[in-house]
Write a structure and sequence with these properties.
heterodimer; A: mainly beta; five-stranded antiparallel sheet; 11 strands; B: four-stranded antiparallel sheet; globular
């Protein structure tokens, strides 16, 4: 059974800092990994999708890496801004066509002005 | 192209009543997933449906909960005889299938008094 863990559970940083969020998963036989952002009381916004054959994906100030063999992914946020404050969720998908996304509990990020 | 539409966004029910949550997938998407998010918890998979078929309901409680995705109309998540522990945010996601990216709705927040 796939389990996804995100560390830290919460993170508070001053504006402008570069930061790394961590995600680990127990079963390395994944199809892809997705990072989401969730604002309080809102839905999920997909940030980056990494296929199992890829090592990283970049979008603007965000960079996500994937090391499938060790069961780890990181989300790197450069030059953080107060608007980045949100909960960041990591989710993995297994290889079977019917596989669902399995989520971690998220990292709650606060960027202080 | 409208996103995944969920309604109602907020629903209040008294214990013992029924709750019906609706999800209209994105245009062209025939696969729907339902997830539940308890306060301070990650998203937990409930059920995966294609048009007129339940593919995986391994995350659905055995009693009181049911889901459908008819040939015409939205997917419905139905909770009978609600209890306070059913209070949560219920998210729907859709995809075109084939392990392609999931897109999430804004969620329906159920409060049971």
């Amino acid at each position: 059974k796939q389990e996804v863990t995100q560390i830290p559970a919460a993170l508070s940083v001053p504006e402008g800092e570069n930061l790394v969020l961590n995600c680990s998963f127990t079963d390395s036989a994944i199809y892809n990994l997705q990072w989401f952002r969730q604002d309080p009381g809102k839905g999920l916004t997909s940030l980056l999708l990494i296929q199992s054959s890829q090592r990283e994906q970049t979008s603007g100030r965000l960079n996500a890496s994937l090391d499938k063999s060790s069961g780890r992914s990181t989300l790197y946020i450069a030059a953080s801004q107060p608007g980045d404050s949100a909960t960041y969720l990591c989710a993995v998908r297994g290889r079977r066509v019917s596989e669902k996304l399995v989520f971690g509990k998220g990292t709650k990020l606060t960027v202080n002005p | 192209n409208a996103g995944v539409m969920q309604n109602p966004r907020h629903l209040v029910r008294r214990r013992g009543q029924e709750a019906r949550l609706r999800c209209s997938p994105m245009k062209g998407h025939s696969h729907v997933y339902w997830y539940r998010q308890l306060p301070e918890e990650g998203l937990k998979f409930m059920v995966y449906l294609q048009k007129e078929n339940i593919i995986d309901e391994s995350g659905m409680p055995k009693e009181r909960f049911s889901a459908e995705f008819p040939k015409e109309g939205p997917s419905i998540l139905r909770i009978q005889q609600v209890v306070r522990g059913d209070s949560a945010a219920y998210f729907c996601a859709s995809s075109p299938g084939g392990q392609r990216e999931l897109f999430f709705g804004e969620g329906s927040r159920l409060t049971v008094l």
